Amino acid sequence: MSTVTVIDPTMTATREIEFRDALREAMSQEMRRDPRVFLLGEEVAQYNGAYKVSKGMLDEFGPRRIIDTPISESGFAGMAIGAAMMGLRPIVEFMSWSFSLVAADPILNNAPKMLYMSGGQFGCPIVFRGNDGAGGQLGSTHSWCVEGLYSNVPGLKMAIPSCPEDAKGLMTTAIRDDDPVFFLESERMLGMKGHVPEGDYLVPFGQAKVRREGTDCTLVSFGRPVNFCLDAAAELAKEGISCEVLDMRTIRPLDIDSIVRSVRKTNYGVVVDQSWSFGSPGSEVASQVHQHCFDDLDNFVHRVHSADVPTPYAFNLEQEYLPNARRICEAVRSCLYRA
Amino acid sequence: MPTTVTMPRLSDTMEAGTVIKWHVKEGDTVATGDVLADVETDKATMEMQTYDDGVVAKLLIGAGDRVAIGTPIAVIAVDGEDASSAGAAKPAAAAAAPAPRAAASTDSPVAVTGTVVMPSAHADTGARARISPVARRMAEELGVDINSLRGTGPGGRVIKRDIEAAATRKGSGAVAAPASIMPVVAAPAPAAAASMPVVAGPGSREVAVSGMRQTIARRLVESKSTIPHYQVSMRFNMDPLLELRKMLNAQLEPQGVKLSVNDFIVRACALAMAQHPYFNASWAGDRIIIHGEVNVGVAVSLPAERGGGLVVAVIRNADQKGLRQISLDTRALAEKARTRGLGPEDMMGATFTISNLGMYGVDHFTAIINPPNSAILACGAAVERPVVRNSQLCVGTELDATLSLDHRVIDGAMAAEYLTTVRHNLENPATLLV
Amino acid sequence: MSMLSEPSTSHSFDVHGKPGERTSAPATTGRRDLVDPALCRQWLRDMLMIREFENRCMQQYQDKKIGGFCHIYIGQEAIAVGCTAAVRPNDPIVTAYRDHGHALARGMAARHCMAEMFGKIGGCAKGKGGSMHMFDREHHLYGGHGIVGAQIPLGVGLAFACKYMDEVIDGRPNSRVALAFLGDGALNQGAIHEAMNLAGLLDIPCVIICENNGYSMGTSIHRGTTMGHDIISKAIGYGIDGYVVDGMDCLSVYHDMSAIVEKCRRESRPAFVDMRCYRFKGHSMSDPRKYRTPEEENQYASDDPIGRLKLHLEERGELTEAVLKEMQKEIRDEVREAIAWSEASPEPPMSELYHDVFVEPHGPFNGTSLPQMLQGKDLR
User: Fold this and answer.
1) Which residues of chain A make contact with B134, given a CB cutoff of 8 A?
2) What architecture (CATH level 2) is domain B211-433?
3) Which of A42, A118, A322, B40 could form a disulfide with A122 if both were Cys (CB 3.0 to 4.6 A apart)?
4) Fold: same for A9-195 and A209-334
């Protein structure tokens, strides 16, 4: 990436649009700017997107650049990777990141490794995107949080916006990035409204944002759960606990410096991660915080994850399964010895 | 140039092979691809082919021989050279198995991300006090004695708010509550303010100071500068004690117990606490705490490899222990200090301390009170001197003992009385047996 | 197994079976006329080069200079050489792990391939790929892939990109064709079927070439694959034209592939080729080949593709013994030099460990750079 223009969105934002609109704006702006960018996936063209993210894009860009694929994730992910090796910049939509599992070989064994295996000859400037996470009573096979699996692999970047303004800025960065990017959205957030600047702007990878300043406890989170953290922080403020909420925005690269800065200030860390706990981004953050902030901690880093079970269908069970605001409050109080 | 054929690696896990059967004999002509032998590997029997055209000059091993991969097993004369000129195999010319690939190249390895090594400032003393890292650090910085705190965290863990609360309780001007010598050091003690810089002159050398030594240093300074010390001395007639000791040791020798003079002194001082409870007490600012247990600290010298110097090891409930037990405890602590090192439970909680330099031939000396004690007894050697007994000049063995006392807790009269009781105990040593 | 054996006329073994009647697919030409003799001699030289290189690879592997896996192409040389001759230099090629032949046929220097297998910095992937990952941007070779079948969606993607660049970006007709090679063992991978469906659906000019040697490791095609005697039926099932080509005959490969490739290029359509051949060695270096009989092996070995082309040239007076001997000597010297060069090439420096993970440097990852063999070259 050459020059990074980051306009502070809060200063110039004058309109509110939905998360899905923000994604579409980013993709469309980039496709107008660079003819090598194209979108493929199931129902992205004529259906206008299973979740209406690509609505109207077929009309603007035509069927050569907005391509409906059959249900063959492994095949079309591999095909897109081959195209990226040749220098095109594909955006591959998985209708749900749960469906990426059948494409695990190309997206994990090829895309992140191509540059290395070829000794620097062939990169893979590709974006894989789709809905990640639970919450819509979609059942256990449709509710994956793949960051728990894929963040492990070197050679890929992983972005996970929590709000519309970051959705657009991170997507723009992802498309312009010369490396493979896994872009994790959320079906539950697609309708979320937020201030989004017009024009193109980049939200850089590896730079967390402090969504709420605080002094008593550091809350670290990614994606949709950032919003649960903000709810929890508001609740805890009533008890006199001032939480600092960090929106990491990207899991890889991880902005550990921002986390360390905050924990050194507050002496307490709570990670909120929607993936299952074993071997997750949350466990990685906790481990790194223990390493870098060992002498600054008054308690071990607490973690709030989705429950370690297959995602249940029943509404009440699923709500408890999620790392909800109530469980975050409990974790913060426990961490601060105020349980 | 003849080609030496070596035992090939026919499977990726193979380490040695056996020629089951040679398919050629010396003098045979072979072409690339011809099978030379059947070779048994770890997994299967495989054919071994030749990669060169030529004449088999020599077979170096026989059927049934098992050799490691890379071992020369045959010589082939190539390009029409004289087969007989091949002679013995030249290992240097052979395609011998190369040295195992070294894992590291000559470059210094690139540090792997994430393995930042934190310098360990924690002395390894076995069990450690339960305290959070930030609380430990704050305690050092604020000069709070964590031994005097009861942690409010789970399992009694001392946490940040405990330190904050303790620091506010200190009040203005007063130094932190005195602490016994702490064996576990979280971080090197902060440098003393406004000390005169020491210039190392020519020929001098510097010795690194361990964290523990720095802590000991700080405690001593605190003790001497905050406790109003004064001394009271008394001289004891040691003859009766020495005689009793000799008799007891003779009886105890088969059991491997050997009582020392110090053991008697420990018991004598401990027993005296019953009548003189203020010698088993601590100044606590607005009150004096008279301790329930009589825990006598004895100075134990640490070997150089453990940091050298003296630390105080504690004999708990010394008033309830007989001479034999006191002796065993003392020896055990000395042994532990020398081998595994003393743990906090060995060094914390003394209510009165005895320092004995008698074995070094010292006549008398004064010791510095070991906070939060109120007194310390410094004992010299038991020496033969001209003495006056029953108005007669004779030779007797005497020991000089000097008490250092905290005048806030103990006044001179109390000190005299205590020493009188101790003298009574020592000069009538039978009292120590009951 | 001599390189110079005569073709045999008795065929009691047939690992492939008889193809069924086909009405939709045009027959392959089966032409074997000799092209420009100089070109033919070059192809013979190329095949001899591959043969010598692979022989030396086996030797180097057994001498522990080459680690991991090593898959030998001996017996299939006519395919790499004939297919390369039938396409243009900028038509992209992708293949599986039996890739040394394709790399050499495409024009890669023997030293860079050998050094790659030795794990040295002079290798085409700076020693970080290994035997299964021959890549060459200059010669449009997109690997060298280890996972069975995974390269076929990539090949379809390469062709897709060629067509997209020509038609969507440059607004002119598609000019390129991609060749994607697989073995008969890969036919049952889901990725192949998904790729064929996409290629047929989206009119992607990719020729999918199955180097059908009748065995996937130790499993004969009849034990693992339905319709193993008639595999083009699988492609036809996806609306793709299928062809059967004699992969042991360089001239047949050249003529048939030329026709197939030109059709695909012109119509911008995929094609599937059942390239029938036989691999003379095991699946990899650890394979004792117990699943084949010596009689079967000898029969196929006596019909060596190199022998066929040599005989063809000799019968037309286009090859003398002296020229052949000179060729063989040059090749032997070249491969020997490649080995010496590779041994002298240093191991990759430790900094290469964190190099080429990402294009841009960040954290411990220090960006990317081209291998030595491509530095200073004008790529595209």
Assistant:
1) 267, 295-298
2) 2-Layer Sandwich (3.30)
3) A118
4) yes
Query: Could you tell me which residue, B301 or B1, shows the higher pLDDT?
Result: B301
Task: Residue window 221-260, chain A: list those with CB within 8 Å of chain C.
Answer: 253
| Partner-chain residue, chosen from B134, B153, B187, that has the shortest CB–CB distance to A337 | B153
- Verify whether the Cβ–Cβ distance A74 to C191 is below 8 Å: yes
Q: Retrieve residue A16's tokens.
A: 């509110």
- Is residue B319 within 8 Å of B270, Cβ to Cβ? yes
CATH number of C37-217+229-285+292-347: 3.40.50.970
Tell me what the mean pLDDT of segment C362-368 comes to. 92
Residue B177: pLDDT over 80: no
Task: Please list every residue in chain C whose beta carbon sits closer than 8 Å to the beta carbon of residue B9.
Answer: 61-64
Q: Which CATH number fits domain B3-85: 3.40.50.11690, 3.40.50.2000, 2.40.50.100, 3.50.50.60?
A: 2.40.50.100
pLDDT for position A2: 37
**Is residue C346 within 8 Å of residue C288, measured between CB atoms?**
no
What pLDDT was estimated at residue A225?
A: 98
Mean pLDDT, chain A, rounded, equals 94
Q: Which of B345, B300, B406 is nearest to B129 (CA)?
A: B345
Q: What is the CA radius of gyration of chain B?
A: 39
pLDDT tens, B94-119? 344 444 444 444 444 443 333 333 33
Let me know: does B42 contact B14? Beta carbons within 8 Å. Answer: yes
- As for the ipTM of the complex, it is 0.86
| pTM score of the predicted model | 0.69
DSSP-assigned beta bridge partners for residue C276 = C212, C246
Give the start-to-end residue ranges of the domains of chain A.
9-195, 209-334
Considering only CA atoms, which of C149, C231, C163 is closest in space to residue C191?
C149
The pLDDT of residue B357 is 87
Q: Verify whether the Cβ–Cβ distance C126 to A76 is below 8 Å.
A: no
| Distance from C-alpha of C96 to C-alpha of C71, rounded to nearest angstrom | 10
What SS3 class is residue A115?
A: helix
β-sheet bridge partners, residue B72: B6
If you average pLDDT over residues C311-336, what whole number do you get?
Answer: 96
A278 touching chain C per CB within 8 A: no
Residue bearing tokens 């039978």: B430
pLDDT at C15: 83
For residue A8, the model assigns a pLDDT of 56
Q: Are C184 and C231 in contact (CB under 8 A)?
A: yes
What are the pLDDT digits (tens) for B181-200?
333 333 333 444 445 667 77
Residues of B that are catalytic: 407
Q: Does C197 touch chain A (CB under 8 A)?
A: yes
Neighbouring chains to C with at least 3 Cβ pairs closer than 8 Å: A, B
Catalytic residue, candidates A18, A42, A73, A93? A73
Q: Which CATH number fits domain A9-195: 2.40.128.710, 3.40.50.970, 2.40.50.100, 3.90.950.10?
A: 3.40.50.970
Cα separation of C50 and C35, whole Å? 21
Q: Is A39 on the interface with C (CB under 8 A)?
A: no
Q: Name all contacts of C325-334 with Cβ < 8 Å and 24+ positions apart.
A: C327/C41, C327/C44, C327/C45, C327/C48, C328/C48, C328/C52, C331/C45, C331/C48, C331/C49, C331/C52, C332/C52, C334/C49, C334/C110
Q: What is the pLDDT of residues B292-325, one digit of tens each?
A: 889 999 988 777 776 677 778 899 899 999 999 9
Count, residues in chain B = 434
DSSP code per residue over A150-187: HTTSTT-EEE--SSHHHHHHHHHHHHH-SS-EEEEE-G
**% of chain C with per-residue pLDDT over 70:** 95
Confidence of residue B204 (pLDDT cuts 50, 70, 90): confident
